[in-house]
């Protein structure tokens, strides 16, 4: 019973509340599931939805603005009025009356036409019948005559009726065309309006195209969807098989490839310089992460998509680091727009001597950046050397040489080893180069002359002469004052390409300076310093001047005595080996040393876990912070147990950031050949190699080359025609073999310049690299040209002589002609035209005469064309220009010896 | 209403695009006053520099006086550009009835300072009959460097935009240089050999007068113009 009772009790119970609660819970869960699946886990949908609305709003505004413009346009207003008038006339006015008249006439005409038409058809039928009867009569031998007569009669009737029919039809057509014309007024105006408002129609169509569904007044825009780019074979999997990379960045960054959203914040912003960057890197082919990194496939959250999550190895590249991927495809970043940071980073890395200690793939064979120390004993004052080794920044803050933070006795030890190891070669050199006569730092006339020479011949293209002054710099143009912070080891300042010569007399002596100036290669076979071809007198004057900059400062005798102690020398040798001095310098006894630093070929791909922070818990745990602090204070992560030896460079933060961009670019990812920029074009490598030499020899200290450099021009602002020539399109301008020979042994071209193109004593290999560089920059595929001077038409020579004469262009008013100089002071002269045949490219001469300002803006050479004389070749200017060019190709050659002269010869060294 | 407003915005934008920055408006000036006066050298003027000519002597002569600074007997400075620098409204900038002429005579430019309304076509003459070139250094207008050989009696140069000063020089004769002033309003003058100038038909108001000389630099001066009256002004300039 009890049991039954229980059951009855159970049946009596109501579960409605439970059911209700369960139903509510189910509903809520269901709604949450839908919400979560569609919205909260798909944040990109919100972005896309917002962007589509924004885009629609923009398009609407554009239509509105265009409508407003049209309404304000008097032409549009006029057309609208014309249209209304025409329509009115069509319904009520004169046109309507005329049309009504035509219509009435047409109706009458059509009635008559119908009658005639019927008649004509009947006649035709009757004719058929009559012919049949004639045939029938023939068959049965009945008389033909009456039947033929009937045919004739009917035929006459048909012709008559047909004539009426044609006549009426013609009248009808005429009436119809008249009516069309009357109505056409409206159509013509409508067409004109369509023309004027074409832009608005286009905008309206675009607006309409954005709407996928109209529901009454509601419009539905495109439903958000994943937008992705598949970059085939861009990555490799663990089995080294090519796999595609998928980038879905555009799912949120909807405006990235659409113009007009430049003013928006991310993610809707248009890509900066989109026209240029995205047209060359279409996002559907290149995606986004090849340049920007991040986690392209992820769309679940901003942090995930940008790769700012643990264990993702390629987080989004921000700020200047966005350029760190340019060099994966572009070899010659120095020549690529928007790649200035990576280019500068690489330049700094190479020229600061980083590769002396750190191996980096692709940069294994760079020459040592420091001076040649095999004869150091003949060059420097021992006291100065001990101070310099201890802290070079104290003597010269802008030097590239880093500070090894040596204790004074360590500095003495290193100096002791260097002096001892170089004794033999120093003595040999001294024996060969005796003290020069005529050097006298107390002779003020001589000193003044020396200073004048340094200011005139171009020394300032590389060197500064006063403390705090800067020559052309290696990196950012930042001064001590601006960059602040003393790191304890010295001030952070930008580095000069060549040494500042302030206090040079503290460092070295007159004998060495004199011979160094005469020919640096006699002292150091690897020096970058060129010969300025100074005479003995000039070299003595310059030496005397330089000896007035500073004075020797002897160290205390006990320190100098320590230099000769064997145990000091042994200590010094250990230090030189430990700190890797041979990475940058050629040092006797250290020929077989290897790099002491870690390899950096894949440093950019290192994760935070792989970086050693030592005891520095204050440095944020990111690659960027680790690297910044490391380069700022290289021994920052040293601990009690772990020693670090990297020296202090004291670079400005600007330069450190550029270096960081370069280091970021060093990772293991290799971009497949098909994505690289012109992978098979030799010009790429030629430009890279050329830029490297140009940086090494600091050609751009004097010359502005392809728009960059020209430091020394700052000294010639008063009269830029006295500054070194700008090299712009040089490869197209000069003949390759001339350039080769000129670089090997420069000859004066511009007699008015006091500056001297130095003799760099370049090797044949280096000279070829430079010739190839200019040829590649000028996009000239064929460096050598041949002109058959024997084939030049005599009338061209005669015409050119006339054109160049004083009554015409008077070329020799300014140009030197062989050994004939123009009148007036040399600064008004122009290059010797007798040189042109060996020097200038014949095609270039044509372009030059045609428009010199286009090839070299600001040149003293004026434009003569258009505006050539009418009495030469009937005013045919192209023929005149060709004639002048032809004459220049033989100018200066003896008359009888012109035929068959070869202009461009292959250089003796061969290519 | 909405459309009308948009239209107004579009019109305004259009107007602003058409004339960026140049707010000068040409109107009829009935009761204009004038500004006249002179520019004098303060202190003792330096002796005029001499240029020794070593080229084309038969045409150019043997020696020239430098046109850099010409001070007359009563210390009046020639070739000073005097202009109202802040005028917004005034008489219309009438196109010159005869185009401005710029001659090369005896290897000197005449005039040494040439002022004209923007949009003028300068007629460049070569009275010398030897090769000259006309090389301008311009920022607002395109620079040009045009040869003028003997057979070219006249060349033309259209200067579209207001700019001051445009340096003109001859590379064939290093000492030859001159200045062009292209103005977007008509209130400017160049002092004569006595240092005198006059600017007429100025609407009454307070203005800033700007004086510019190639070697003495720039100087400004406040001036008040009353209807139908002449505001007399005397300015002194000197080497800094």
Which keywords apply here?
heterodimer, A: 911 residues, mainly alpha, 5 domains, two-stranded antiparallel sheet, flat, disordered C terminus, B: 240 residues, mainly beta, Immunoglobulin-like, five-stranded mixed β-sheet, four-stranded antiparallel β-sheet, 2 helices, 9% helix, globular, disordered N terminus
Under CATH, the topology of the largest domain in chain A can be stated as Cytochrome Bc1 Complex, Chain D, domain 2
CATH class of chain B: Mainly Beta
**Rg measurement of chain A, Å:** 44 Å
The largest pleated sheet of chain A is described as: 2 strands, antiparallel
State the helicity of chain B in percent bands.
under 10%
Can you tell me the CATH topology of chain B?
Answer: Immunoglobulin-like
3D shape of chain A: flat
Describe this structure in words.
The complex is a heterodimer of chains A (911) and B (240). Chain A is mostly helical. Chain A folds into five domains: 75-202; 229-316, no CATH class; 340-352 and 600-645 and 651-664, no CATH class; 376-583, Cytochrome Bc1 Complex, Chain D, domain 2 (Orthogonal Bundle), CATH 1.10.760.10; 701-760 and 778-897, Cytochrome c-like domain (Cytochrome Bc1 Complex, Chain D, domain 2). Chain A has 36 helices and six strands. In chain A, strands 1-2 form a two-stranded antiparallel sheet. A two-stranded antiparallel ribbon of chain A has the order 3-4. A two-stranded antiparallel sheet of chain A has the order 5-6. In chain A, α26 packs across α27, α32 (794-803) packs across α36 (877-888) and α34 packs across α36. Chain A is flat, with a radius of gyration of 44 Å. Chain A starts with a helix and ends in a 23-residue tail after the last helix. The model of chain A is unreliable at 900-911 (pLDDT under 50). Helices cover 9% and strands 45% of the residues of chain B. In chain B, the strands form six sheets. A five-stranded mixed beta sheet of chain B has the order 9-15-14-11-12, with no helix packed on it. The N and C termini of chain B lie far apart (60 Å). At the A-B interface, α3 of A face α1, β11 and β12 of B.
